[in-house]
Amino acid sequence: MNRTAVVTGASSGIGEATARRLAAEGFDVVAAARRRERLDRLAAEVPGIRAATLDVTSQESVDAFAASLDRCDVLINNAGGAVGLEPVASGDVADWQQMYDVNVLGTLRVTQALLPRLIDSGDGVLLMLTSVAGLVSYEGGGGYNAAKHAQTSMTEVLRLELVGKPVRIVEVAPGMVHTEEFSLNRFRGDSSAADRVYQGVPDPLSADDVADAISWCVTRPAHVNIDRLVIRPRAQAAQHKIHRV
Ligand SMILES: NC(=O)c1ccc[n+]([C@@H]2O[C@H](COP(=O)([O-])OP(=O)(O)OC[C@H]3O[C@@H](n4cnc5c(N)ncnc54)[C@H](OP(=O)(O)O)[C@@H]3O)[C@@H](O)[C@H]2O)c1
Q1: Given CA atoms 114, 52, 81, 133 in this order, what sign does their dihedral have?
Q2: Strand-pair category, 236-238 with 241-242
Q3: Does the pLDDT at position 5 exceed 80?
Q4: Closest C-alpha to ligand 1, atom 44
Q5: I need a labelling partner for 194 at 20 to 30 A (CA). Which of 63, 177, 214, 219 fits?
Q6: E strands along the chain, which residues?
């Protein structure tokens, strides 16, 4: 039987690219997110991918999703994102709540639901898609910095708590990735503000660059745990040091 990989947030960006990469590696991939029609299109196009509806902010949805799975060998906790770039002083509590619910509690819900299957598989991989925003804070980072730091902490705690169990705990922390929707969502649909994020940057990372790194982490031998892989475009030496032409 093929190994099964679950990818959350697989309807766009890094999640979609990861679903494609893992299917190419021979995994049975369960591509999960809220926008079912996008997932159905992906599943119809790529052999080895099947679509599943999942809202990580709903315990009911996570429970139903977990109950629908026969097995889970690899879990890619990718669903997440940012809302707003306001200073802490004027940040909207509702935005912070939303970011916390998806990036932190969403990851927690899915992890709790699937951890027993990962352990039962005898060689599980739990991968957290965090961000360099979870390692270094920046002005306007506010709720997203806080949420991604929390996700990074959760990853570290899990690795400590699960030592001795047959499951690897991996973190992939990307810098600037030019995906279709991430910045658009952050700027609430303002496409010119979203475009300015990448303006003049010679080559931001693509979703597939990150998916390639994820796929590499997941396909190491069972005893090799990539604790944290930080991946940035060459043009981004640090959070505040971006080369633009
Ligand atoms: N782009 C970057 O620069 C960057 C850098 C570092 C880290 N990251 C992280 O990488 C991950 C993917 O980002 P991306 O750039 O690929 O963004 P994206 O294109 O906006 O994708 C986000 C995905 O998350 C899903 N999602 C959002 N809320 C969800 C929910 N409640 N339940 C289930 N799925 C949900 C979305 O699907 P539905 O709307 O269909 O549910 C979508 O598939 C995120 O965790 C992000 O924080 C991104």
Answers
A1: positive
A2: antiparallel
A3: yes
A4: 80
A5: 214
A6: 4-8, 28-33, 49-53, 74-77, 124-129, 167-174, 228-231, 236-238, 241-242
Dist CA 68 CA 70 (whole Å): 7
Q: What is the distance in A from the centroid of ligand 1 to the CA of 182?
A: 7
Element (DSSP H or E) covering residue 90? none
Cα(33) to ligand 1 centroid in Å equals 9
- The three-class DSSP label of residue 219 is coil
CATH number assigned to the domain comprising residue 153: 3.40.50.720
Q: Is the CB of 8 under 6 A from ligand 1?
A: yes
Pocket test for ligand 1, best of 18, 78, 206 (most atoms within 8 A of CB): 78
Q: How many domains does the chain have?
A: 1
What is the residue range of 90's domain? 4-242
Per the listing, tokens 């931001």 go with: 204
Cα 44 from Cα 154, distance rounded (Å): 35
Query: Per-residue pLDDT tens for 93-130?
Result: 999 999 999 999 999 999 999 999 999 999 999 999 99
Residue for token digits 């998806």?
Answer: 102
The Å distance, Cα 89 to ligand 1 centre, comes to 26
Asked if 102 contacts 41 with a C-beta cutoff of 8 angstroms, the reply is no
Q: pTM value? A: 0.98
> Which residue lies with its CA nearest to atom 25 of ligand 1?
9
Task: Look up tokens 């196009």; give the residue.
Answer: 45
- From the alpha carbon of 176, which atom of ligand 1 is closest? 3
User: pLDDT by residue (tens digit) across 166-219?
Assistant: 999 999 999 999 999 999 999 999 999 999 999 999 999 999 999 999 999 999
